[in-house]
Amino acid sequence: MTEAEYLANYDPKAFKSQLLTVDAVLFTYHDQQLKVLLVQRSNHPFLGFWGLPGGFIDEHCDQSLEEAVLRKLQEKTAVVPPYIEQLCTLGNRHRDVRGWSVTVCYTALMSYQACQIRIDSVSDAKWWPLADVLQIPLAFDHLQLIKQARERLTQKALYSLVPGFALSEPFTLPELQHVHEVLLGKPIQGKSFRRRVEQADLLIDTGLKRTERGRPANLYRLKSDTASYRFLRNLEC
Amino acid sequence: MTEAEYLANYDPKAFKSQLLTVDAVLFTYHDQQLKVLLVQRSNHPFLGFWGLPGGFIDEHCDQSLEEAVLRKLQEKTAVVPPYIEQLCTLGNRHRDVRGWSVTVCYTALMSYQACQIRIDSVSDAKWWPLADVLQIPLAFDHLQLIKQARERLTQKALYSLVPGFALSEPFTLPELQHVHEVLLGKPIQGKSFRRRVEQADLLIDTGLKRTERGRPANLYRLKSDTASYRFLRNLEC
DNA sequence: TTACTTAGTGACGCTCAGACATAATATGTT
DNA sequence: AACATATTATGTCTGAGCGTCACTAAGTAA
Question: What molecular function does GO assign, one term (chains A, B) (predicted)?
């Protein structure tokens, strides 16, 4: 049989297939703490529960998995996050009562300000402090995904400046350090952090300064290659 | 509508769904080089081409994605690899002529000896030297997946002893070092490598020695926590 | 002017990777 | 038996960079 004949006879619905969704754990930093974007479900299963933004692929408009998850995020936040990365894919026969189900989960970061207005204007999406999220029941296995995303981001705080994407630009160096400290759950030596930042050469000094109690702090932006830069040595916290 | 009513009316075939497969990039180390297991396809599309071992989920026997990919590997090698890790999930509307298609791809490592007999006995599976694989046309986007798996493993050679899972136990320390050197494409200072291995405390000294020209070398096994151990500092190669 | 607060620097020790000389232990040759 | 050779393993020095902490800088408030 030639490939042409095979395709002519091919029936996409002949084989039973699995439920496939994309989801995103979108973090930001606000009020001195990490927050994650959750959406209140308007459909079964888990109707009324809070869960991760995401959903099914739309074959009409989504060219790829990443386009699909970005579309889902954009529907809620009206913007595209400056950082997104595939986290993992979770699939088994137990996670959804409808049957064998698979989710491709992403981790994303963005500033609180970038979408504050949009989020405040809708009732079904909300930034949740990470500590609070651990206390409430979530849809599906989304709690597990959030924990895993957080662990990965904590690791990144040790050897990259990726957490900076959770801030709105321009930001001060102590602000960036504090995001890392919140992720690690421990204080970082300011001197060590500054040394690393300087050596990495990932921050653009805007020349501006911000003052709020104490000596004014320099304001920086992230260079575009921050997402892929890795330090050779981890912080030892 | 209650959830029970929703589920009673739920038709799994009502929504168009995507092709979903699992694939694995299985590496080993043999004849001083890295090899990858490829399978010759017996179906359209890409009939007759070499590609990664993998295939569709079998809802009857697979409880999870990982079980599915392990089953696929076991069908070819007759054994379960000592190391497996999710690599990435690739999904878009162009990678398969049959339509929107998604693969959840894993990276795995195992020793050459563990399945040599089984592989030699079948005609459709074969260990390919990695350099050769880059020269031949592969099915789908499997070349891209192999390259990505190799890059990730190269990174792991800088901050872990995971590449050791490509060896058969017991192995010598210079053998382990050479796997790392092949991955990195550069020689490593023997002293640095030994220091790290000792400090990590991941090798069990079997007390045995192996001699083949020169001073006999100690033989080691990997501790089970080698898969998750990370050095704080990278090799600087 | 002084106290206070926060931002940023200087200087020293420690750990560990790189580099390379040296020792140890086997085989093969004379 | 003595020696050459090959390979494994160790000793030691140097340097990069993190931890630590004292100190300086630059703003606000009393």
Answer: hydrolase activity
Q: What does the alpha-carbon distance between residue B98 and residue B44 come to, in Å, rounded to a whole number?
A: 10
Cβ–Cβ of A17/B19 closer than 8 Å?
A: yes
Contact (Cβ atoms closer than 8 angstroms) between residue B28 and residue B109: yes
Question: Is-contact B51 B142, C-beta < 8 A?
Answer: yes
Does A10 fall in a domain?
Answer: no
Q: What is the pLDDT of residues B158-201, one digit of tens each?
A: 999 999 999 999 999 999 999 999 999 999 999 999 999 999 99
Confidence of residue B117 (pLDDT cuts 50, 70, 90): confident
User: Which residues partner with A217 through β-bridges?
Assistant: A210
A61–chain B Cβ distance below 8 A for any pair: no
Nucleotides of D under 7 A from a protein CB: 5-12, 17-22, 25-28
Q: Look at chain B and report how many structural domains it folds into.
A: 2
Do A139 and A189 belong together in one domain? Answer: no
Is the residue at B14 inside a domain? no
Are A138 and A166 part of one and the same domain?
no
* B146 contacts B133 by C-beta, under 8 angstroms: yes
pLDDT of residue A237: 87
Query: Closest Cα of chain A to B165: distance in Å?
Result: 22
Q: Which of B112, B142, B172 is at the close of a domain?
A: B142
Select from A99, A87, A97 the least CA-distant residue to A155. A87
What's the Cα-to-Cα distance from A158 to each of A91, A153, A182, B12, B51, rounded to whole Å? 29, 9, 12, 44, 37
Residue A162 and residue A153: Cα distance in Å, rounded?
8
